[in-house]
Amino acid sequence: MLIRPIAHSDLDTLYQIAVESGPGFTSLMPDREALTRKIEHSVASFNRTVSTPENEHYLFVLEDEVTGEIMGTTGIEAAVGHDHPLYHFHRNTVTHHSRDLGLRHSVETLSRCNHYSGCSEICSLYLRPEFRRPNAGKLLSRVRFLFMGLHPERFADTVIAEMRGVSDDEGRSPFWDWMQAHFVDMEFAEVTRLISSGNTDFIEELMPSHPLYTCLLSPEAQSVLSEVHEKTRPALHMLKSEGFRHKGYVDLFDGGPTVECKLSGIRSVQESEHWSVEIDRAPTNDFQKRSRTQFDSPLLVTNTETAGFRATVLNDAITRAGSRTLFLTPAQAEQLNLQNGSVCRVLPLTSQSRTMPAPKEHTRAEVSYAHQS
């Protein structure tokens, strides 16, 4: 499995993924022209020199290195709300109190806001069902955090993820059914199409701007507030393990939760380390053999490039005891665009391998990274 930036030649497969992912997956809609623009935007973003995040969009694909087939996608928006407002409802509690009557009553409201404007957003994670295999989902999810940790100047301090809300197999959302009946007479599929194309004017024109009392929503709409689609639960669980938390902001259209975390507080950013690469040569004596240590669990390994970014998962990775040196075969080094002596980024994918060998010394790249973080 190999992670790389998306290329123009991936359009057909990206369109197929947009079809497979189904209604409600607004970051990838089955529109070839829109997907072509998305790829062009991503390619330009990877090649752009950036000191402050703006409207860059980074889209990655997961490739089967044997067959060349695209297994899935994953992406990052550098600064949401840059070109179009990003709206949410915020769940608040309002208390009404009459001192004369001695009565007090608290009610929950939904208030429209654009609280997360300027934050970075992880998005577009989709693993095709026929390619589900060990560590594929972890690779798609966690590689984004390593890329962001490597290039913090390209991203905001706060990272968010909008989780897909509850909808049925036909794409009907209980939350939107209520909104449609009272405010915007459009089908959910049409709404998601407008949002994916960047058309948000109807939100200001038609969506409620004053607080809504949630007790007035239908029971079906109330029951799905802050809940996620069944297929999204594993992704939410993984984000929670990274440190993401829900703080009451929900999607305007399906009521799904948005979760957030500081970039510097994301577990994968904190636990990944810079290591040096040594192209593997077979040990020639017992001392060299004894100095090697094999990890019992997989490692996520990336290079440190931007447009040439590559990442993979290595099973049975080998290091030199007491160092931050990773042995790679010539084929692995070529796959990751790494040379002898290059710096890579390493992250253990399971807790049992979290304790890494202590480094003998820091490379210049490691010292520079520490200052950036």
TrEMBL record:
Pfam families: AstA
Protein source organism: Marinobacter suaedae
PANTHER family: ARGININE N-SUCCINYLTRANSFERASE (PTHR30420:SF1), N-SUCCINYLARGININE DIHYDROLASE (PTHR30420)
Protein name: Arginine N-succinyltransferase
Region (Disordered): 353-373
Keyword Hydrolase included in the entry's annotation: no
Keywords: Acyltransferase, Arginine metabolism, Transferase
UniProt cross-references to InterPro entries, sorted A to Z: Acyl_CoA_acyltransferase, Arg_succinylTrfase_AstA/AruG
